Amino acid sequence: ISKQIKIEKTIKKVIKTNDGNYMITSLQKTKLPEDGGVAILEKYDPNGNLIWENVYGVSIDVSMVDFSSMVVTKDDSIIVVGHFGETDDIGIEGKGLYDGLIIKFEQVRLN
User: Fold this and answer.
1) Successive 10-residue mean pLDDT values, the chain, 111 residues
2) Lateral strand order in the sheet of 50-56
3) Please, where are the H alpha helices in 1-111?
4) Residue 52 per-residue DSSP state
5) Strands 50-56 and 37-44, sheet pairing
6) Strand partners, 67
7) 3-class state of residue 89 by DSSP
């Protein structure tokens, strides 16, 4: 028996970067309550063309990584805040069921 699983993507934050492009952070997950989700960080040009996309988390059905907000800094870095639910999701050792996170992505890694 095959079952279809609906996947939803929720945009959390959209910001305009200093280079005129746009950064979007979102959460992609299944509609099953027991499943987790992965955080997605994307960069688009002003015409809506995807420049790059990075996914954070092991997989949509076992991970829980959520970037709930972000800001661009004067040095063109991006700082994201959110939470994660599994130690192996992003390589940080967790201390509880859900742990907060703050990550700075330097501009050199964002081109």
Assistant:
1) 72 91 87 73 94 79 77 89 68 69 75 57
2) 7-16, 22-30, 37-44, 50-56
3) 87-90
4) E
5) antiparallel
6) 82
7) helix
